[in-house]
Amino acid sequence: MTKNFICYPMVIEKHSEKELYNAYFPDIEGCYTGGKSIQDTIEKGKEALGLHYLELETDEREIKEPSDPKEIKLKDNQKLIYIDVNMKWFREKDKYKSITKAVTLPKYLNQKAIESGVNVSAVLQKALMETLDIKEEED
Fold it and tell me: What φ, ψ does residue 76 adopt, rounded to 5°?
């Protein structure tokens, strides 16, 4: 089931020697982040959680439910906070993300485009929209 809003626990700990913070999500394997302040770490935590969750959705992998806070064991230097993310926004942002695509062109055509100042990516986008009969950005 696709969720538009998610909220997961994040464990933050202050680095022992530097003014830095490390953080991880106990329920999202491989989801780590950090920052120069708690606020910075929270902001980066939202981004990390959203990107990891989107990847799990896209790959159709299992997504664990958030743990009960009573089940999360913390060390003395750790704090537990909850991070919420608007996944609808993340999905929309991802949909319009630019990707790099290799295109094969004859050398002379590429040279003419360069000399004329033609943006090949823009021309390709326009041609694809016309070919696919897309009037505006589709969902």
Answer: -60, -35
What are the C-alpha distances in Å from 35 to residues 23, 38, 45, 80, 89? 8, 7, 9, 16, 23
Q: Is the pLDDT of residue 131 over 60?
A: yes
| Structure confidence by residue, pLDDT tens digits, 50-82 | 999 999 999 999 999 999 999 999 999 899 999
Looking at the chain, the whole-number percentage of residues with pLDDT higher than 70 is 96
Could you count the other beta carbons within 10 Å of the beta carbon of residue 12? 21
Do residues 9 and 67 make contact, with C-beta atoms less than 8 angstroms apart? yes
Separation of alpha carbons 13 and 77, rounded Å:
6
**Angle 73-77-78 (CA atoms, 0-180°, nearest 5)?**
45
Provide the CB-side half-sphere exposure for 138 (13 A, CA): 6
Whether the Cβ atoms of residue 31 and residue 48 lie closer than 8 Å to each other: yes
Residue type, 108: Y
23: phi then psi, degrees, rounded to nearest 5: -150, 150
| 78 closest CA partner among 38, 18, 39, 46 | 38
